[in-house]
């Protein structure tokens, strides 16, 4: 009887191979065909479930799920019922335009699950009834015996039964920066995912050797399948701006509808106006006061941010992420390939004579060697022609090695194990090429590296004598060595001294290897006995996956901007802490391991989340919990990563950031932003752009709302006074849309304020319309009311027709808005300068466009028929321009008073998800 579908609870890594076979009722020869078919029907195919795409009609209908849109739809239907077809058509037209913008900007449905599904191997080599055959990977069932070799993608979760020099690349699943040695021995039940050496997991790549494994989990029950299901169940959060606009929309709708209803009732009861007329007046007030152009202008502002970021290698996949970047307070980042180069580099060599520092990082063979004295590298470069011990050490590192260095398309790459590749690169920096060395000293035999023996040995002929070369774990080689090479002579090995040197390198976060040699005679086939005794130690080499230089600067910039970087990695704690210190992280006193996270409750995790910047040996569910814990503390989180394992946290984070070059497709699909250059520093530029976009949207809202307020107040005042409406609903709709898409759009092009990256992140829960903005909106609305009503009343007093008076009122409103646009370039700073007034081409371009539109609206016959406008005289335009100048100067005077009183125009700062320690205040 096979395990049930709840077998995910079985710790297969802790069971012996024979016990696993017995548990799944299988044998070394595999299942027979009938049993395999039966299990396939029981367990289902070895593939991941796919999410149903949201239908297009549902996506379109969701665009109308907005209180402001619903109010406009009701107003249009009511207008149509009263016979006002033109008004109703215009209102519905605007609603449809706004809905279509949102519909198209949302793009295609989520594709992350599909991209993960495609990572499963399409074919698998299995034993069925003792015979080897190739079958589609989706037909694998628990109990199958699978054969894998170098270059294969593991098709299901396997319990290894045989492993020959078997290593897998698990970085995309566990975050482990180097290939993992696999073995058949069971490990402890509580071993971390990256330490389960008896398992080979679905979607990982075989980089060396071959193995025979027992299929223990398939489809959604595999480790990658669990990630897929987590990704399916992760809730995506609304962005701060969307939440604020929803909240502001509800408040505005309530007050606007209340004011419209009360105004209509007042007109009927007090002035005895017809109910139909007062209803249309109420509709006019609602249409005038509702900023229906606001969603469009916010969308366009975000789209402009997308275009700017794309030019700087930050590709935005979802529009609202642009704005969210501006409120980021915490960046969760994977280490390998994100903060580091994912290019293992030899940085230090310990010989008997002392330590040598190696310049240069990455796989490019560029750098020099320097003697280290008192912990500091000397400036003078070593001449390797004179330093025979170092030259010999590098030569041995290349010969006892299978990796190759190659330049492809202008980029240096390693073929083979990146750890071995680091030794090849180090030798190349000294002018020793692997190809020539291996040609001159051909390999006669070799003992491949295996995790059980912890070393690799090769046999060569050097200077007419046989030389056995050994490379491996330093603790193992110290057991095998009795002497040490020092300036060509052999001396007794001081084990304690070399153990201190190993500890010194390890404490810097370096991975340590030891090299040794032994002269032999008449050996043709190597055995373990040849390598494991009487070796002479040559020295140690310390290897590191180095941090990106630009990431160090990016971390510094983040801290200055009040943003806290946090490292989450599958790598070891010592290595992660060393990298974090080099990067300049704030909290590097300790690292917390995945096993500790598992033991913590959500409350415990929330308590320590502000105190620790490094989380090591973390699994996918740990990353997701950390993001959730930070969000519970009020943090707005970005999560950067490149592997499948980052998918759920990328999706849960407020902004998921994937690597474009080394990132998996699954990570890219789960993310809101993709870095085309894999450069952590690009995030800083994106955050700067996000802050600028939010600033400009805030300026735009501050600019647009007074236009609506001025119109709404004018209509309300007319009804309350029992006089004629100065602006009709159709004219109000014209003004709203024309002002929004011309003058309002201009502010989206404004440059960033000088202090934008020294401010603390803004509080996402702070009201979009704070007291400062509310005051500004009310103040300017009153100024425009005075201008509109004053112009309307003056033209009527001059004997002008109602059409002429309304035309003057509309143009006064538009001209006053144009003047206020110049004020709005700076919320508090003065614009009374040449740069302030004339420093923005978009502002004056939009003023020119709206001037042309208003002239057409005023004088073109068909526009006069539609909107009821009438031509103005030159004198009328003079009064309008004078009134506009008065509005501009009054707002500048108000700014000066506010500055004198110490008012700040910036949104409230967010202190959630951060603490004061280690962060520079703004």
Describe the structure.
The chain has 922 residues and is of the alpha+beta class. It is 48% helix and 17% strand. It has 34 helices and 28 strands. The strands form four sheets. Strands 10, 11, 12, 13, 16, 17, 18, 19, 20, 21 and 22 form an eleven-stranded mixed β-sheet that branches. The protein has an eight-stranded mixed β-sheet with strand order 8-28-27-26-9-23-25-24, sandwiched between helices. Strands 1, 2, 3, 4, 5, 6 and 7 form a seven-stranded antiparallel β-sheet that branches. Helix 4 runs antiparallel to helix 10, helix 20 runs parallel beside helix 27 and helix 27 (681-721) runs antiparallel to helix 30 (802-823). It is elongated and about 120 Å long. The relative contact order is 0.10.
Topology (SSEs and partners):
Blueprint: H1 17-23, H2 33-43, H3 56-62, H4 67-81, H5 85-106, H6 112-117, E1 123-128, E2 131-136, E3 145-149, E4 157-169, H7 171-174, E5 180-181, E6 199-200, E7 205-217, H8 223-233, H9 240-271, H10 275-289, H11 294-311, E8 314-316, H12 320-325, E9 330-333, H13 335-339, E10 345-351, E11 354-358, E12 369-373, E13 376-377, H14 388-399, E14 404-408, E15 411-415, H15 418-429, H16 434-440, E16 443-450, E17 455-462, E18 465-472, H17 474-480, E19 481-486, E20 489-492, H18 495-507, E21 511-520, H19 528-531, E22 535-544, H20 549-560, E23 564-568, H21 573-583, E24 592-593, H22 594-599, H23 602-608, E25 614-616, H24 620-632, E26 637-641, H25 647-652, E27 655-659, H26 665-670, E28 673-675, H27 681-721, H28 729-746, H29 771-797, H30 802-823, H31 834-838, H32 841-859, H33 861-867, H34 874-900
